[in-house]
């Protein structure tokens, strides 16, 4: 059947992650599949670029699905959005070559983590940012981040229950920026391990608050023992923002995200 590619944005606050669950708990994947199936008039299964955990958000999650139903790009997009709840929406849908695969064709993935760094907790977007009370030194966090760039074994930075066969990943970019009370980490890698981004943030928060020196990020990396790392940071401030594919697939360029910090950042 013909193959289609789509971009999905979602607020993960009330979902138990991207992946459909046998337990029947709400997932983003199942919700999207139900809405697409109504438009297609047949059951639709989707494949995503990178599964996100419970509470994690998506701005440009890429999926593919197969369907022989004849619909315009506009029809797929707006028809599906009509059947989706307010916290999930398709950005666009278009046909794609049969050899495209949302997961295996991806060359890199990109996340952003948004921290509200001030003493008072937020009343707005309480699940859209992670609140951290202690003052953070972004310069120290940036120094520590340099130890993690490149290809390394990130065994210390993945969840104990991670099912990946090995922990070698390549971080291509890792930057931190402050704008007022907001501290944002931007990270891009060929792929990520379970809880990898949140565990990196957990280490950087210890360093930024002055409780550990920047070199501790490397010491945690080298020991290859999850128990020697920091706490796993909360999911609320984490956004899956972009995926890179070969130009041959001609996918639309993603917009800077998440929208409420995009205009504040230099990238």
Mean pLDDT: 95
Shape: globular
Indicate the CATH architecture of the largest domain.
Answer: 2-Layer Sandwich
Number of helices: 6
**Whole-number radius of gyration?**
19 Å
Order of helices and strands: EHEEHEEEHEEEHHEH
> What composes the largest sheet?
10 strands, mixed
| Low-pLDDT stretches | none
| Structural class determined from secondary elements | alpha+beta
Strand content: 25-35%
**How far do the termini sit from each other?**
38 Å
Q: Which fold does the CATH topology of the largest domain refer to?
A: Alpha-Beta Plaits
The number of domains is: 2
The CATH class assignment of the largest domain is Alpha Beta
CATH homologous superfamily label of the largest domain: Pseudouridine synthase I, catalytic domain, C-terminal subdomain
What's the β-strand tally? 10
Q: What is the helix content?
A: 10-25%
Gist of the model:
The protein is α+β, with helices and mostly antiparallel strands.
Characterization of the model:
This protein has two domains: 3-105, Pseudouridine synthase I, catalytic domain, N-terminal subdomain (Alpha-Beta Plaits), CATH 3.30.70; 108-239, Alpha-Beta Plaits, CATH 3.30.70.660. Strands 1, 2, 3, 4, 5, 6, 7, 8, 9 and 10 form a ten-stranded mixed sheet that branches. It starts with a strand and ends in a 5-residue tail after the last helix. The protein is globular, with a radius of gyration of 19 Å. The chain is an alpha+beta fold and 267 residues long. The protein has six helices and ten strands; from the N terminus they run βαββαβββαβββααβα. Helix content is 21%, strand content 27%.
